[in-house]
Amino acid sequence: MKKLSILILLLISLSVAPMISSASCPTPVYWDGVELKSGQIGRVLIQKPTTIYKNVHGTFEFSRTVKPGENYRVYADKSTYYHLGGGLVIKDDESILYQTPSKQKLVCSKNATTSFTIGDTAASVTPKLGIVQKKVINEFGTSTSIYHQNYQNFYAISFLNNKIASLYTKDKHYKVNGVSISNTVSQLENRLGTNYQTTGNTYPIEIITYQLPKYEANFFIDVHNDNKISAILLIDYQLMNKNPNLYPKKSTSLEASYETMLFELINAERKVQGVPVLQNASKVAAVARKHSADMGTNEYFSHDNLKGQSPFDRLATDGVTFRNAGENIATGYTNAYFAHEALMNSLGHRKNIVSTAYTHVGVGVFFAKWTYGSIPYYTENFIKP
């Protein structure tokens, strides 16, 4: 696979488990009629009116008041506070009742796997993932369906002849040949061997690619999280043959699809990292799109444009008001998956993607003319109005 990797630093403001057979575990796992979510360790039942706080840069700020009878999933127990996900916490006092599911349910939830793969029928997906949240076109001339539950258990799946032809996921329960997200490189090698290709502009390795019998398997490595797998991308060779150079052809519709996919990937990442998802800002996206087009048309790569305008200047010029703002740019990555995972492996860009300083994001993509088709330019502008 050919991939061109170009990155630039961003400009920013400012107990042993019981032995339980997976065969005895239902999928999904339910607790009192409610699905036990990935990473959930318990729940809190509200007994008296109390406050949920939001963790903002280590400071707990008021989020909302909750009432008796309400209940919330718990993902971490920090003694004084229970963490509810999305950066929200609640104090452990007489206002709440904390409960945990049985050990068997916890183990089943932890070991739950999603069993479809490349070549399986489209009908095998819906019972496990539910309805399609969005559908976009891809560089292979087919469509990609996006599945998630409020950005948890994120999947992007393409179909060819009514069969799965590509699959990207950040769901830690998904396994391919016994390998799952959060496995280390050593664990990956133990399963699939060391006959692989690597891609990345830095060391340690950012992507490990195996040429398997029916499909290519890409494992994205998080260099800032003990070199564990952060995402998996599988592509059927039949689908790849529709665009052997992999670089997309110039298309405004495809540019828009890449923008949508990057927005979805940003929020899926934020959900994994436990921070609130961002809202899409169309006015901000227009600014980002113009900068990507300017870079691609005039063949430069910088946060400052050829007029010397910074990202903040461009936002202000186009009437976007903000208290906090930041920008990520990238170019050369053949699709949004590679662009996003590369940005996450650059600390500055990563900080923008998962920062709680922002509430909105706008994504702009432009395909510039290039020898192999088109080369994408990506701009992500983050703001807090």
Strand order of the largest sheet: 13-14-15-16-22-21-20-19
**Count of all domains:** 3
The number of helical segments is: 9
How many individual β-strands? 26
Instruction: Flag low-confidence runs.
Output: 1-23
Q: In the CATH classification, which architecture of the largest domain applies?
A: 3-Layer(aba) Sandwich
N-to-C CA distance: 41 Å
Structural category is: alpha+beta
User: What is the class of the largest domain in the CATH system?
Assistant: Alpha Beta
Please bin the fraction of helical residues: 10-25%
Principal-axis shape equals globular
Keyword list:
alpha+beta, SH3 type barrels, Pathogenesis-related Protein p14a, 3 domains, 8-stranded antiparallel β-sheet, 6-stranded mixed β-sheet, disordered N terminus, protease, Serine protease
Structure description:
This protein has 385 residues and is of the alpha+beta class. It has three domains: 30-111, SH3 type barrels (Roll); 120-242, Pathogenesis-related Protein p14a, CATH 3.40.33.10; 255-384, CAP (Pathogenesis-related Protein p14a, 3-Layer(aba) Sandwich). The protein has nine helices and 26 strands. It has helices at residues 103-111, 126-129, 185-192, 237-240, 252-273, 282-298, 311-317, 336-344, 347-354, and strands at residues 6-7, 11-12, 30-31, 34-35, 42-46, 50-56, 59-66, 71-74, 76-77, 81-85, 88-91, 96-99, 134-137, 143-149, 152-160, 163-169, 175-176, 179-180, 197-199, 207-211, 215-222, 228-236, 279-280, 324-331, 360-370, 373-384. The strands form six sheets. Strands 13-14-15-16-22-21-20-19 form an eight-stranded antiparallel beta sheet. The protein starts with 5 loop residues before the first strand and ends with a strand. The model is unreliable at 1-23 (pLDDT under 50).
